[in-house]
Amino acid sequence: MELEDEGGSGTAGSHWKRRSAKDEIMAGIIGVSRYSNLTIAAMEDLGFYKGVYSKGEYMAFGNGVGCTLTNSKCITNSVSNVPSMFCTTNSRTASGYSCPSDRLAIGTCYTSTSCDSVPSNFQYFTGNTLCGLSGTLTDYCPIVTPYSNTGCMDGEITVMPGSYITSSSRCFDATSTITTSSRYSVTAVCAAVKCETDTYSIRLSGSDSWIDCPPSTTVNLASQSSISSGSVTCPAYGAVCFSWNDEASLDPDDRSRKKE
């Protein structure tokens, strides 16, 4: 596993490289901090511990991408080599909404058009028309980043059409554009999640019904009262069924970076 080579003295050389393990507990920027099998293996290699790998937490970022992550650049000639991790758009509207890898908020692909200061080996777009941002510890690889007010548990519903904000809500990417009854069009929403042992169901704002959401399938949302049309992709169970700050609930009826 690569060690971080960006950041200050408290980060570089002592954390996993965030480009490869953004949501891991050993990444150099605090986030969802999954205690994955990467860290379990590192602890076991110290010689004092025996790893129980069945206890490792699911981490969507980098899951199943294989050697492409370490053998290739994140983006080549404006095309992402790992679309599940690195993005290439430059949208700041609701039609450009996406889910970050931790699914705790609605976000967007953050890129810049001011690229002259970016080192040439980190220029991934044709003609240097776009580039990633500094300070993300991802070798300037663009990633989906949440706004400050679009959290699935505490966001502002006025900028999150169709979303259901509760302590158990998670972000879902649209398979086909979601149109709300108020005629807003969005490409990602926060939905309440009800987790069972190894399955889950979801519901959107304004609806009293739950929809089964089998992982890797597409679910039509037209039956939800606040949605006129559209569908979402159901991610892996571990991507949405986890506790966060001890606030996640099996029953979301306890509902409790700025997007304008």
Automatic annotation (TrEMBL):
GO molecular function list: metal ion binding; metalloendopeptidase activity
Cofactor(s) needed by this chain: Zn(2+)
Top EC group: hydrolase
Matching Gene3D superfamilies: Leishmanolysin , domain 2, Leishmanolysin domain 3, Leishmanolysin domain 4
Cofactor note: Binds 1 zinc ion per subunit.
Residues that coordinate or bind Zn(2+): H15
Biological processes per GO annotation: cell adhesion; proteolysis
Main location: membrane
Record's subcellular location: Membrane
UniProt KW keywords: Cell adhesion, Disulfide bond, Glycoprotein, Hydrolase, Membrane, Metal-binding, Metalloprotease, Protease, Signal, Zinc, Zymogen
Catalytic activity field: Preference for hydrophobic residues at P1 and P1' and basic residues at P2' and P3'. A model nonapeptide is cleaved at -Ala-Tyr-|-Leu-Lys-Lys-
A GO CC term assigned to this protein in UniProt: cytoplasm
EC number from the UniProt entry: 3.4.24.-
Family stated for the protein in its record: Belongs to the peptidase M8 family.
PANTHER family documented for this protein: LEISHMANOLYSIN-LIKE PEPTIDASE
Protein name, UniProt field: Leishmanolysin-like peptidase
Species annotation: Strigomonas culicis
